[in-house]
Amino acid sequence: MKIELLTLGDTKKPELNKIIELLNAEKEKAAQKEDAIKANNSWRELQVLELNILFIRAFHNVKTKNYRDAWNELEQCELIHSFIRDNSSEEYLCNPRLAFIADKISKWQSLYPYCLFCSPGFKVGYYTCSICDHKIRPRSRCAHKKGKVYDGQLCLHVAHELEMLEISMVTKPVQKYSVMHDDPTLDFTLLVRLSSFLDHAFEDWDLNWTTMKFPVERFKSVKNEDKCPCKSGNQFELCCMGKEEVEIPHVDFIFSKPLPTDSEAITFPYDNG
Amino acid sequence: MLIHPSHGHEDVYYAGTLDTLDFLNENGINTDVYASDDEYRELGLHGAEIWLGTFIIQSVIVPIFCGVASSYIYDKLKAKNDDNIALRFMVENIKGKTTAVEFKGKVENLDKALDAIKSFSED
Lengths: 273, 123
Description:
The complex is a heterodimer. By secondary structure, chain A is of the alpha+beta class. Helices cover 36% and strands 20% of the residues of chain A. Chain A folds into three domains: 8-110; 117-170, no CATH class; 204-264, no CATH class. Chain A has helices at residues 8-11, 14-32, 36-63, 67-85, 90-93, 96-110, 189-197, and strands at residues 117-129, 135-136, 149-150, 153-154, 157-170, 205-215, 245-255. In chain A, the strands form three sheets. Chain A has a three-stranded antiparallel β-sheet with strand order 2-1-5, with no helix packed on it. In chain A, strands 3-4 form a two-stranded antiparallel sheet. In chain A, strand 1 and strand 2 (135-136) form a beta hairpin. The model of chain B has no long low-confidence stretch (mean pLDDT 82). Chain B has one domain. Chain B is globular and about 35 Å long. Chain B contains three helices and seven strands. In chain B, the strands form two sheets. Chain B has a five-stranded mixed β-sheet with strand order 3-1-5-6-7, covered by helices on one side. A two-stranded parallel ribbon of chain B has the order 2-4. At the A-B interface, strand 1 and strand 5 of A face helix 1, strand 3 and strand 4 of B.
């Protein structure tokens, strides 16, 4: 059975559920027969389907301005892709759809304005293996390795006897979903601009981060005490305010399809106000 | 080689210490942690900074260790150049003299630090 998986509508088709049920049944059957290769292949196919569905949902949520939901889905895509990557051959990972998603996850994430996250710190008493419940100690391990798939089951380590130590604010989190600030002041312009040119999640595009200089007069909306647009982290007054030109981060979007000529105009974020 | 508890804690090890331990042992560096199986506790600090911990190491295996550590950081942890990393070596030479080397910075500068440790261990 083959179906097209391109749009949000495709992810809701009953045929897709049938394929998922079929793959789950095949995985169970293979595991019972101790056919590890077949069980692991079914696991992989299920993960790839899940990855595609999440990526399409994330794209749809960006398009409909549900940025936080899309952010969380992109993180789930990142995790699922890392598990697929660690349990697949190089050849399998070259599959165009899989390679496309892997390439685009971090690029979409790089366009988000989120920069502050909360990070819980724990003391972990001990871990157990999610497959066989073995208590993991420095000198005692089971046959399963964390992150690897056995008979269609992913091995993870489950933490026990957690003791909360602190909650920190960090700029680079392990869990990206722990965004601390989600308010109307956040600027999603880059996501709006990019998604306005894309009709579906798998249309090809790329980006190129660079910088661009603008005359200081164009930054009248920036107050003296505001952060400098050059992103040095210093106050505008103490940084670039006295210069003739201000060099700010700039991103070029590159598309594989032809665009209307007016779409090449540069969006300047400091003209309002 | 011996891995010591995390900086600032007497009895707790950095998250992923057992993964580091396995990787070093699988790659020919005989390694242990300075804790009994019952005492061993791990810290789960959920910032993406990579804290590898304190390694007590004999100067003769420094060159091999640097190669394996580099492979662990880049290939296994998939560290990117702008990730922050912290690790500390206590290098013990044949005469029993111990020197501490600490690195805290961007992954892109780690190679320079490892090269410095290698040349220093040859002295």
